[in-house]
Amino acid sequence: MKKTIGLLMALLLLAGVLSACGSKESSGDEKSGDGDKKQTISLAVWGSSPAETEGLEKTVASFEKKTGIDVNIEVITDNFQDAITARFAAKNPPDVFYLEAFVAPKFIDSGVLLDISGEIENQDDFYQPLLNAFKDKDGKLYAVPKDYSTLATYVNTDLLEKAGYSIEDVPSDWEGLVQFAKELQPKLDEGVAAMIFDKSMARHLSAMLATGLNPITEDGKADFTSSEKTLEYFQSLVDGQDGGYILNPQMDMGMDSAGAAFGSNKAVIMIEGNWVLSALKNEYPDVHYKILPSPTVNGQNQTMIFTVGYAIAKDSKHKDAAIEFVKYMTGEGQQQWSELSGTFPTRQSVAEAMKLAENEELKAHIEGASYGTPWTSGIYLPVISAAFDNHFQAALNGDVSLKDAMKAAEDEANAEIERQQ
After folding, report:
1. Backbone phi, then psi, for 387, in 5-degree steps?
2. How confident is the model at residue 113 (pLDDT cuts 50, 70, 90)?
């Protein structure tokens, strides 16, 4: 296995560069004639944890040993999406690369990805929300999810019991949880928050959908104002912050992250992703906690899913080898990758083989993969989410009312979308 570690600087690209790089008319059945000679494919990834790096290298080595195909791993350490976009613009894309669900619609719409709908076996075995994150509106598949994370409710049991409660007292619904946090706060030591929250839209899209609002309309525009239930949901966060019982770790507590606040016994409840588990175990081994599912909203199970897939460049000169690699990494090799990297497998059969649902610490995260909402929704989601984040911040700061903030966010996003069209 060859490994290249490089720093690719961010490039200022002209608008629409992706759409200039390829046509959507090419079929996924098109393959290159790889012949019998030894093949080498390039795989572009971003830098990750030591465990994930080891997991990738060892699983790739297993693939190389089985197939005789060499894989050249290119680690892009800065501005990954810009670097990949630049590679396509220069007509020198990697054969295979990591594709985040958040930006997948833009790459799919540009026509630069290989349609692999007919190449991936036993697609029903994947958690369907993960697979759907990489499909176009016609159901064609352009990437295969390699792993994922979900949100769940973490509860510090020591702080909870000190305040006179047990884990059974923690409500499973959002409205109940907010009220519980309000009642809990006066019983906590100074400097300890009943609940902490993340203010970005990426953490709340599933709740928005559960309250009856899709913030991205059918014509791709932003909508933050048409649902009173959605406004009530976000108002509960504003009120909680004003009341001191739902705080943002960075804004209100001077902490680096939610995991740091929770691990330092500065918060009783947080809704976070499984990425905090490593830090809780290694950096905060004395904190005791239970993990519950994300709270229901409007009576519906909901959580966010963050997933990354393997995509293949349509213009790859080694399509057969690239397809074989993706099939291996998301099929036969997935259990090895998951066990070594500590990430969650995207195939249900692998999760069952690893007995993940029997692990009380992971159960809530794993179950969320079957009903959660992937962080992806059309080509203008980056524009829409950026506008939301900016203006929701203003509401949290008390600069404007929530309704005015959401109307401003909606107007800003739609003006930018119109400019880009």
Report:
1. -65, -40
2. very high
